[in-house]
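agent: user wants the structure for Long-chain acyl-CoA synthetase from Candidatus Electrothrix aarhusensis. delegating to structure tool.
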Amino acid sequence: MPMTDDPQTLDEALRCWVEETPNKTFIRSSKGNFTFSETQNIIKSTSGFLIEHGIRPGDKICLLLPRRPELIFIFLAASSIKALTCPINYLENTQHIEEMITSLKPAVIILDESTVRAEVLCFIQEYGITYGVTVIAVQKTPENPDATSWQTCVEHSPTPPLPQIPDDCAYLNFTTGSSGFPKGALCTHAHLYWNTRSAIEVFHMTADDVHLCMFASFSHPHELFCRALYTGASLVLLTDISPKAIAKTIIRHRVTCIMGLAVMYKMMARHCKKIAFPCLRIAESGGMFTDQEIHKNFRDAFGLPILSVWGSTETTGIALANPPDQYRTDGSMGKPCPYYQVRLVDEDGQEVAVGETGELIFSGPAVSSGYHNTPDFPSKEGWYFSGDLAQKDNEGVFRFVERKSGMIKVAGLKVYPLQVELIIQQHPAIKEVAVIGVAEKRRGCVPKAFVTLEDNATLDVGELEDYCRQRLASYMVPRKFQFVESLPKIGSGKINKKILLANPELCLELP
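agent: tool returned. relaying tokens verbatim.
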């Protein structure tokens, strides 16, 4: 473990800036601006409310929130009393959310009632009553009068944080496992610190920066605030994802560092060409592949390169990056970030030669040690096996090849084919189904489903699409359906997806 005198826990970092720059604005948003000192006061009051309602170390707090200040307040308040924040994708289908909450058994559920579906709200109401779970609404609606208002938390008497060490778990960072059900990677204060410090060093970040992260609030939520927190900088929260809203925010708040998906940069280059961003110096792209056309169009429009990065839930964020002074626009993943050790290995775990394809594996102080309540963390002898295949050139730059598992990334959101296949397979007219990812300009990749029907069954594309939309999150619904006579198989009887991937547009009529 590298040595450092910096504050490593979230509470230490906040306390440091409260002492040095208490009146500096830490959070800027349409819901209000908050200084470091005001943030600390809200966190202490929220902690007091949680403790009074029986929250103890290790208890789970589920968050179903968009990018709002309350998300940061609750995250920091929970970690200060050693509770575990569990961000949930509130855009998911109702069944998925119900399964997540039931599995986690939270002591508190915090939501924005204006952003969750009515059936999800109804489930949470019933769950809270049945199991005595405290439900807090940051934005209440008449449909849920029993929920505690956020203002009650803010007005509660303050409570000081509990003693913390870097190895204390700060939250569960959820990903999707090979079975399609999310797994919570254990994320400690040390993981957050070393990943954030790594990014700070790569991009030369300081207290003078203003950060805007456009990642989803349920996907690596610490990215929204950790870089600003550990450097004493300011951050901006924005819920509107339209290109012009992002552009206006960059100009108004003099944003210097932005983090987003390739599709966001693509739309900005298309719709904001005549806008200048004199303060913006870092445009970081993660979560999906950024092709050369996007790189070129963005640089032509704004005179600034896009810096592609690679990271995962298990590495607590970026582990490979294109630094500002050595960036590439060929879609490369970049070089290893500080404090990460990276190797490419074959199926036997042996390191492959330069230019050959291997699986990316990682070690270091920011790499998670496992999943919550699940033993199948893909690691061996301290190395995390990512499941992503890549190549390395003579300059030590990594290039992504493909996903070993067949996982699809739709605009940065992970979709496992099995999860979609299981839903489609439940339709009584479906005999077999195979889902693969196919290229699509706007989202990078989208699911396509090949299906065969039961004897004498009838079903059209519109009916099947409606069926999927009722049961899957919108980004998981296949954008293409193809009915075939049969699906190619390998010797064991399993569907041979290699043939489908090699010929995604081929109309298969196999014997």
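agent: one observation worth passing along. The chain is about 30% helix and 25% strand.
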